[in-house]
Write a structure and sequence with these properties.
Spore Coat Polysaccharide Biosynthesis Protein SpsA, Chain A; 293 residues; 9 helices; 3-stranded antiparallel beta sheet
Length: 293
Amino acid sequence: MDKNLVIDGRTYEVEVMQKVSFGTEAPRLAVVSRQQNGMGMDLVRTCIRGVQHFTPEPHELWVIDNNSPRENLSWLVEWPDVNIVLNRTEPLPHEARDTTHAEPDPDNQLTWDSYANAIGLEIAVRLIDPKSSHLMSLHMDTMPCRPGWLSYLRSKIKGNVRAAGVRMDKTRTSEGVLHVLGYMVDFQLFRELGLDYFPDLPRFDVGDRVTVRLREAGYDVFACPNTLWEPDLAAQIPQGSPLREFGVDRAFDEDAHVIFMHLGRGVRKSIGIHTRGTMVEEWVRLADGHLLV
Protein backbone atom coordinates (compact mmCIF):
# COMPACT_ATOMS: atom_id res chain seq x y z
CA MET A 1 0.00 0.00 0.00
CA ASP A 2 1.42 3.38 -1.01
CA LYS A 3 0.96 6.45 1.17
CA ASN A 4 1.98 10.10 1.08
CA LEU A 5 2.86 11.50 4.51
CA VAL A 6 3.47 15.20 5.14
CA ILE A 7 6.19 15.56 7.79
CA ASP A 8 7.92 18.82 8.69
CA GLY A 9 6.46 20.51 5.61
CA ARG A 10 7.65 17.87 3.14
CA THR A 11 5.79 15.00 1.49
CA TYR A 12 7.27 11.53 1.95
CA GLU A 13 6.27 8.74 -0.40
CA VAL A 14 6.20 5.45 1.47
CA GLU A 15 5.24 1.88 0.72
CA VAL A 16 3.66 0.06 3.67
CA MET A 17 3.61 -3.72 4.07
CA GLN A 18 1.85 -4.58 7.32
CA LYS A 19 2.21 -8.30 7.99
CA VAL A 20 1.58 -8.31 11.76
CA SER A 21 -1.28 -6.80 13.71
CA PHE A 22 -1.99 -7.08 17.43
CA GLY A 23 -4.29 -5.34 19.85
CA THR A 24 -3.42 -1.88 21.05
CA GLU A 25 -1.88 -3.19 24.30
CA ALA A 26 0.97 -4.83 22.35
CA PRO A 27 3.99 -2.48 22.19
CA ARG A 28 5.02 -1.16 18.80
CA LEU A 29 8.78 -1.31 18.13
CA ALA A 30 10.19 0.99 15.43
CA VAL A 31 13.62 0.34 13.87
CA VAL A 32 14.90 2.95 11.41
CA SER A 33 17.22 1.39 8.83
CA ARG A 34 19.73 2.65 6.31
CA GLN A 35 21.27 -0.18 4.28
CA GLN A 36 23.99 1.19 2.03
CA ASN A 37 25.78 -2.13 1.62
CA GLY A 38 26.08 -5.69 2.89
CA MET A 39 27.24 -4.66 6.36
CA GLY A 40 24.24 -2.39 6.75
CA MET A 41 22.01 -5.27 5.74
CA ASP A 42 23.73 -7.50 8.31
CA LEU A 43 23.08 -4.95 11.07
CA VAL A 44 19.36 -4.69 10.33
CA ARG A 45 19.05 -8.47 9.93
CA THR A 46 20.77 -9.06 13.28
CA CYS A 47 18.52 -6.50 14.99
CA ILE A 48 15.38 -8.17 13.65
CA ARG A 49 16.62 -11.63 14.61
CA GLY A 50 17.47 -10.44 18.11
CA VAL A 51 14.04 -8.94 18.65
CA GLN A 52 12.27 -12.01 17.35
CA HIS A 53 14.50 -14.44 19.27
CA PHE A 54 14.18 -12.75 22.66
CA THR A 55 10.67 -11.28 22.50
CA PRO A 56 7.96 -13.92 22.94
CA GLU A 57 5.49 -11.28 24.15
CA PRO A 58 2.96 -9.93 21.63
CA HIS A 59 4.48 -6.96 19.82
CA GLU A 60 4.54 -5.31 16.42
CA LEU A 61 7.99 -4.82 14.94
CA TRP A 62 8.12 -2.04 12.34
CA VAL A 63 11.22 -1.50 10.18
CA ILE A 64 11.22 1.89 8.49
CA ASP A 65 13.83 1.94 5.76
CA ASN A 66 15.12 5.38 4.80
CA ASN A 67 15.58 5.20 1.04
CA SER A 68 18.21 2.45 0.88
CA PRO A 69 19.23 1.19 -2.57
CA ARG A 70 16.44 -0.99 -3.89
CA GLU A 71 18.77 -3.91 -4.54
CA ASN A 72 19.49 -4.10 -0.79
CA LEU A 73 15.85 -4.45 0.23
CA SER A 74 14.60 -7.72 -1.29
CA TRP A 75 15.55 -9.77 1.78
CA LEU A 76 13.73 -7.32 4.06
CA VAL A 77 10.56 -7.24 2.00
CA GLU A 78 10.37 -11.03 2.15
CA TRP A 79 10.94 -11.30 5.92
CA PRO A 80 7.88 -12.73 7.71
CA ASP A 81 6.25 -11.31 10.85
CA VAL A 82 7.69 -7.81 10.43
CA ASN A 83 5.88 -4.69 9.26
CA ILE A 84 7.94 -3.00 6.55
CA VAL A 85 7.84 0.65 5.52
CA LEU A 86 9.93 1.73 2.54
CA ASN A 87 10.49 5.48 2.50
CA ARG A 88 11.30 6.54 -1.07
CA THR A 89 12.01 10.20 -0.25
CA GLU A 90 15.49 11.17 0.91
CA PRO A 91 15.08 12.66 4.41
CA LEU A 92 16.99 15.95 4.47
CA PRO A 93 16.78 18.84 6.96
CA HIS A 94 15.86 22.27 5.68
CA GLU A 95 19.45 23.52 5.43
CA ALA A 96 20.43 20.49 3.36
CA ARG A 97 17.72 21.19 0.78
CA ASP A 98 19.44 24.44 -0.15
CA THR A 99 21.92 23.12 -2.70
CA THR A 100 23.87 26.38 -2.67
CA HIS A 101 25.03 25.60 0.87
CA ALA A 102 24.87 21.80 1.04
CA GLU A 103 28.02 19.74 1.46
CA PRO A 104 28.65 17.23 -1.36
CA ASP A 105 28.62 14.19 0.95
CA PRO A 106 25.62 14.00 3.32
CA ASP A 107 27.20 11.05 5.15
CA ASN A 108 29.74 13.48 6.59
CA GLN A 109 27.04 15.52 8.32
CA LEU A 110 25.90 14.16 11.66
CA THR A 111 23.01 16.62 11.66
CA TRP A 112 21.61 14.96 8.54
CA ASP A 113 21.88 11.54 10.16
CA SER A 114 19.94 12.72 13.21
CA TYR A 115 17.25 14.32 11.11
CA ALA A 116 16.87 11.20 8.96
CA ASN A 117 16.46 9.06 12.05
CA ALA A 118 13.78 11.43 13.33
CA ILE A 119 11.93 11.28 10.02
CA GLY A 120 11.90 7.47 10.18
CA LEU A 121 10.42 7.56 13.68
CA GLU A 122 7.90 10.23 12.70
CA ILE A 123 6.79 7.96 9.85
CA ALA A 124 6.22 5.22 12.42
CA VAL A 125 4.21 7.61 14.62
CA ARG A 126 1.85 8.22 11.71
CA LEU A 127 1.45 4.59 10.69
CA ILE A 128 0.98 2.62 13.90
CA ASP A 129 -2.48 2.33 15.40
CA PRO A 130 -3.13 5.72 17.08
CA LYS A 131 -4.65 3.86 20.03
CA SER A 132 -1.42 1.91 20.67
CA SER A 133 -0.38 1.93 24.31
CA HIS A 134 3.41 2.04 23.88
CA LEU A 135 5.93 2.91 21.16
CA MET A 136 9.60 1.97 21.39
CA SER A 137 12.35 3.43 19.23
CA LEU A 138 15.32 1.22 18.32
CA HIS A 139 18.54 1.81 16.43
CA MET A 140 19.44 -0.73 13.77
CA ASP A 141 22.69 -1.56 15.61
CA THR A 142 20.94 -2.76 18.76
CA MET A 143 20.21 -6.25 19.99
CA PRO A 144 18.04 -7.55 22.84
CA CYS A 145 19.85 -10.43 24.51
CA ARG A 146 17.56 -11.86 27.20
CA PRO A 147 13.93 -13.05 27.15
CA GLY A 148 11.65 -10.70 29.06
CA TRP A 149 13.61 -7.55 28.19
CA LEU A 150 10.55 -5.87 26.68
CA SER A 151 8.24 -6.76 29.55
CA TYR A 152 10.87 -5.52 32.00
CA LEU A 153 10.98 -2.09 30.38
CA ARG A 154 7.23 -1.92 30.10
CA SER A 155 6.86 -2.81 33.80
CA LYS A 156 8.76 0.36 34.67
CA ILE A 157 6.16 2.57 32.98
CA LYS A 158 3.75 3.04 35.83
CA GLY A 159 2.61 5.82 38.11
CA ASN A 160 4.51 8.98 37.31
CA VAL A 161 7.08 7.19 35.10
CA ARG A 162 5.94 7.45 31.48
CA ALA A 163 9.01 6.30 29.53
CA ALA A 164 11.67 3.64 30.09
CA GLY A 165 14.91 3.08 28.22
CA VAL A 166 18.13 1.13 28.13
CA ARG A 167 20.46 4.11 28.54
CA MET A 168 20.42 7.59 30.00
CA ASP A 169 22.53 9.99 27.96
CA LYS A 170 24.28 12.34 30.38
CA THR A 171 25.90 14.66 27.84
CA ARG A 172 22.87 16.86 27.08
CA THR A 173 21.39 17.99 30.39
CA SER A 174 22.32 17.74 34.06
CA GLU A 175 19.52 15.23 34.62
CA GLY A 176 20.22 13.30 31.41
CA VAL A 177 17.83 12.18 28.69
CA LEU A 178 16.78 8.75 27.49
CA HIS A 179 18.80 7.84 24.41
CA VAL A 180 16.64 7.18 21.36
CA LEU A 181 18.62 3.99 20.59
CA GLY A 182 16.16 2.16 22.83
CA TYR A 183 13.34 3.63 24.86
CA MET A 184 9.64 2.97 25.25
CA VAL A 185 7.14 5.75 25.81
CA ASP A 186 3.50 5.92 26.78
CA PHE A 187 2.19 6.59 23.28
CA GLN A 188 -1.14 8.00 24.40
CA LEU A 189 0.63 10.60 26.51
CA PHE A 190 3.09 11.19 23.66
CA ARG A 191 0.15 12.13 21.45
CA GLU A 192 -1.66 14.10 24.15
CA LEU A 193 1.40 16.29 24.79
CA GLY A 194 2.12 16.71 21.06
CA LEU A 195 5.62 15.25 21.36
CA ASP A 196 7.91 14.46 18.44
CA TYR A 197 11.36 12.99 17.76
CA PHE A 198 12.93 15.93 15.92
CA PRO A 199 16.38 17.07 17.05
CA ASP A 200 17.17 20.63 18.04
CA LEU A 201 20.92 20.60 17.49
CA PRO A 202 23.35 21.26 18.96
CA ARG A 203 21.52 21.13 22.29
CA PHE A 204 19.19 18.18 21.72
CA ASP A 205 19.69 15.19 19.44
CA VAL A 206 16.93 13.06 17.94
CA GLY A 207 14.41 11.94 20.55
CA ASP A 208 15.98 13.92 23.42
CA ARG A 209 13.14 16.39 23.76
CA VAL A 210 10.68 13.62 24.63
CA THR A 211 12.40 13.22 28.01
CA VAL A 212 12.64 17.00 28.45
CA ARG A 213 8.98 17.58 27.64
CA LEU A 214 7.80 14.74 29.86
CA ARG A 215 9.67 16.24 32.80
CA GLU A 216 8.31 19.70 32.05
CA ALA A 217 4.81 18.20 32.18
CA GLY A 218 5.52 16.72 35.61
CA TYR A 219 6.38 13.15 34.61
CA ASP A 220 9.51 11.05 35.11
CA VAL A 221 11.49 8.45 33.15
CA PHE A 222 13.40 5.25 33.97
CA ALA A 223 16.75 4.12 32.58
CA CYS A 224 18.59 0.82 32.99
CA PRO A 225 22.11 0.78 34.42
CA ASN A 226 24.49 0.79 31.45
CA THR A 227 28.20 0.10 31.03
CA LEU A 228 28.74 3.19 28.88
CA TRP A 229 28.50 5.39 31.96
CA GLU A 230 29.29 2.72 34.57
CA PRO A 231 31.98 0.46 33.06
CA ASP A 232 32.49 -1.32 36.40
CA LEU A 233 29.09 -2.95 35.90
CA ALA A 234 30.77 -5.39 33.52
CA ALA A 235 32.27 -7.11 36.57
CA GLN A 236 28.76 -8.40 37.36
CA ILE A 237 28.72 -10.44 34.14
CA PRO A 238 29.77 -14.07 34.80
CA GLN A 239 33.31 -15.10 33.95
CA GLY A 240 33.39 -16.85 30.60
CA SER A 241 30.40 -15.00 29.19
CA PRO A 242 31.13 -13.49 25.75
CA LEU A 243 29.34 -10.35 26.95
CA ARG A 244 31.79 -9.64 29.78
CA GLU A 245 34.64 -8.20 27.71
CA PHE A 246 32.63 -7.22 24.64
CA GLY A 247 33.31 -3.56 23.84
CA VAL A 248 29.76 -2.25 23.43
CA ASP A 249 27.32 -0.64 25.84
CA ARG A 250 25.30 -3.19 27.77
CA ALA A 251 22.10 -2.51 29.71
CA PHE A 252 21.15 -4.44 32.87
CA ASP A 253 17.96 -5.33 34.66
CA GLU A 254 17.74 -5.09 38.45
CA ASP A 255 19.01 -8.68 38.81
CA ALA A 256 22.29 -7.78 37.04
CA HIS A 257 21.36 -9.61 33.82
CA VAL A 258 22.42 -8.05 30.52
CA ILE A 259 19.17 -7.55 28.63
CA PHE A 260 20.16 -5.27 25.75
CA MET A 261 23.25 -4.17 23.79
CA HIS A 262 24.14 -1.31 21.47
CA LEU A 263 27.05 -1.37 19.04
CA GLY A 264 27.20 2.40 18.54
CA ARG A 265 27.89 4.30 15.29
CA GLY A 266 26.62 1.26 13.42
CA VAL A 267 25.52 3.02 10.24
CA ARG A 268 28.75 4.98 10.04
CA LYS A 269 30.82 1.87 10.78
CA SER A 270 29.00 -0.01 8.02
CA ILE A 271 30.09 2.53 5.41
CA GLY A 272 33.64 2.95 6.72
CA ILE A 273 33.33 6.47 8.16
CA HIS A 274 33.76 5.37 11.79
CA THR A 275 36.57 2.86 12.37
CA ARG A 276 37.07 2.81 16.15
CA GLY A 277 35.82 0.30 18.70
CA THR A 278 33.90 -2.92 18.05
CA MET A 279 33.09 -3.25 14.38
CA VAL A 280 30.11 -4.67 12.52
CA GLU A 281 31.77 -8.02 11.75
CA GLU A 282 32.45 -8.68 15.45
CA TRP A 283 28.89 -7.70 16.36
CA VAL A 284 27.37 -10.10 13.85
CA ARG A 285 29.81 -12.85 14.82
CA LEU A 286 28.77 -12.57 18.50
CA ALA A 287 25.10 -12.79 17.54
CA ASP A 288 25.53 -15.74 15.21
CA GLY A 289 27.96 -17.66 17.39
CA HIS A 290 26.58 -17.13 20.88
CA LEU A 291 23.23 -15.35 21.18
CA LEU A 292 20.96 -16.33 18.31
CA VAL A 293 21.62 -20.08 18.29
